[in-house]
Design a protein that fits this description.
- The protein is mainly alpha-helical.
- It has one domain.
- Helices cover about 50% and strands about 10% of the residues.
- The chain contains four helices and four strands; from the N terminus they run E-H-H-H-H-E-E-E.
- A two-stranded antiparallel sheet has the order 1-2.
């Protein structure tokens, strides 16, 4: 079970900054997971992961030039998803909730 975002502006800014501070390798994996998920199921409770597309999606993520471009794309997805763990401490930044960033410092 997950909660919907309901935080202060400062908490969103902190989560955004925490996402941008992640290592590039982790950003690549997160972005590839988003791309490899069937688009019409990305925002539902049961996203459909396409394993056969994942290697191409990961190669595409690795080819992006700047870390901030990929982090901004992930943040855009997370803002549309708007889910977090129980208690509201960590924002989900992938369709499966396995990758999160903290709303706190």
């Amino acid at each position: 079970m997950s909660w919907e975002w309901s935080h202060t502006v400062e908490a969103y800014e902190t989560a955004y900054n925490n996402l941008h501070a992640l290592p590039r390798v982790e950003l690549n994996v997160i972005y590839a997971e988003i791309l490899a998920t069937r688009q019409k199921t990305r925002y539902t409770g049961d996203p459909e992961f396409r394993q056969n597309r994942y290697p191409k999606c990961l190669a595409f993520a690795e080819s992006l030039l700047a870390d901030d471009i990929i982090a901004d794309a992930i943040w855009e997805f997370a803002e549309e998803l708007r889910t977090c763990d129980n208690g509201g401490y960590n924002a989900h930044v992938c369709p499966y909730g396995c990758h999160t960033v903290s709303f706190g410092e």
